[in-house]
Amino acid sequence: MSKPSTKPSKFFRVATEGATTDGRNIDRATIEQIAATYNPKTYGARIWLEHIRGILPDSQFKAYGDVIAVKAEEVDTDSGKKLALFAQIEPTPELVAINKAKQKLYTSLEIQPDFADTAQPYLVGLGVTDSPASLGTDALKFSANRKQHSTNLFSTCVEVELTFDEPAGVKLADAVKNLLSRFSNKSGSDAAQFADISEAVQALAGHVVTANDNYASALTRLDKAETALTATQADLDAFKAQMDAAPGNAPRRPSATGNDGAVQTEF
Fold it and tell me: What range defines the domain where residue 148 resides?
């Protein structure tokens, strides 16, 4: 079953060449190599709260989406031009809601310097946090437990606000309106006929937009149902394993023998 999700975000900056949280540097070559080698089909970087990888689907530290593409571009900074890494993500509805609520506004890369013995750096995760200081030197003693590999490095945090391209249905409706506006100066019988056609086409475009929204909503509900079903199946499997492990020849309570018909009197 395909995995439902929200629409992809626009590209946003996630790192700039410079220092990391443990004193190492992300240089220009590292950003260039990450931009050139990142392929979600090879290894997809997922999005994690505070870089903590949960294992349960209903955990607060579950994955909150995927990085689907990256690119490198130069940006102007106070110290001159620097190379920055931009990412496009496919967030879960929960991450979109969190971001809209002005929570977890900062991102930090997790980079593996020698990925799969290739001697090249690779993006293996994207962390989101509330404060740019939360992944700084004060948190270094906790970082080892967060990293997927002990040699991985975390980039310093960058503040982001998720923005999205308009859905295809909305773009279609606008395109239809723009096209029809070119013929709005018709007169006489042509104008009447064209008005009917215009109304019908705009109604059709509206149905497309509604259908697109309904489809996205249905996918979200399906995702939640699939998650609940997976959790229920896991509980059933655990219960079955527990029952299978229970001894099958447990001793039974001996049958009551009664009092052989005698009447006992209490004094």
Answer: 12-159
